[in-house]
Amino acid sequence: MLYMRSISDDRTSRAIIRDESLRLFAVNGPGTVTVRQIAAAAGVSPALVVHHFGSKEGLHQEVDQYVLDVFEAMLGELTGESGAELLDPKSGASSLSEAFARHLPDGSPVPAYVRRLLLSDTDAGRLLFRRLYDLSRSALDGLAAAGLAAPGQDPAVRAAFLLANDLALFLLRDRLTEVLGTDPLSADGMARWAPEMLSIYAGGLNATPPQPQGEAP
Amino acid sequence: MLYMRSISDDRTSRAIIRDESLRLFAVNGPGTVTVRQIAAAAGVSPALVVHHFGSKEGLHQEVDQYVLDVFEAMLGELTGESGAELLDPKSGASSLSEAFARHLPDGSPVPAYVRRLLLSDTDAGRLLFRRLYDLSRSALDGLAAAGLAAPGQDPAVRAAFLLANDLALFLLRDRLTEVLGTDPLSADGMARWAPEMLSIYAGGLNATPPQPQGEAP
DNA sequence: ACACCGACTGAACGATTGTTTAGCATGCTG
DNA sequence: CAGCATGCTAAACAATCGTTCAGTCGGTGT
Asked: What is the mean pLDDT of chain B?
């Protein structure tokens, strides 16, 4: 933990405070983290935290907005590179959660924070979920237009079902890692998870897809 | 809020404290709920809470164990009435989450508490999830033995996938209610959700099942 | 009758909470 | 140079936290 920021950290103290509180909020929840903990993690005095953000609540809101922005920027990259193929079984990124994990640095606290937001009964969380739902709807529309999936009797529910399943992987990641022995969002884990998921999405629980091994180039 | 327990409440003060803290923990999280809030909700002094449970942490552990017991008792009823048919597409209760909601009184705080446990990175949460996972495995085994579903290339992952999807409905209930306009765990909502889910599980995203309307008795 | 015990409370304990205040540097601007 | 905002801290603020303590009350056993 020593020398974390001692050598050439060109972030302003304000940015450091924001980053450190983002990290602490993601791990422990905004309610239980104290201003003094944040100040200590950022290497400043508690008074400076209030000086820059007005109050702990002000800091909380700014961190929320910051995460929302990061998330939105990441969505921009995703739709930019793969269009409506986010849920496309043929694409490499077969899961929104997996793409999410791929587009952020390894130790980033943002995923944990987003997880907390999604489950948090706040406007920020509602906004986030609504955004993902709209994305899921348009992705399903794209698949339907391409003949890759049927819109179903109730497209709204079908899109919600696919989104919920995708997010479940993200929300229950740690629990699934425990019972499976592999992090389902890691490369190895995805290699186990994706075929099973795609098989069900392709033909249901009874389908027996051809053995995917030994395919000619 | 008046007269909540004023007329013939034969619970002991200890039980009232436990119930009220269960309710408050479920809503706000154990970390942010204060002993004084619990005492006020139970209509007793803060000192009595400590007198009965040793400390706030002691109370917390006892409530955890209590919820675990309630949950286990409910699982007993479920497996007693429907055996391995918990995930059976043909059974009326097509979702574990839905059965969960059905077997508890309407305003019960237990589901919200269980939700918090499942997401909480505690031994109690791990225990709970492991229990559900084992149930999902045996349910999948049962379906496979009955020829109703293939075990898949990786049965462990397939069981985890089905469980995660089921729990997603439970974890994201409020968010799904917002975007769908219907609580997916209510009777009306399940009538929309179940056919879509069963259709995908039966034949994948491309299947077009026969219109289920106008069927002769 | 007395002693005892468990349920229970009011008041206080020290620790910790978010926030305020006064003041010290530093650097820019006139 | 003076003036003034900016970044920042040490110290203290009242409020609230979990917990402790002394003591009251109602019953139960002897």
From this structure: 86
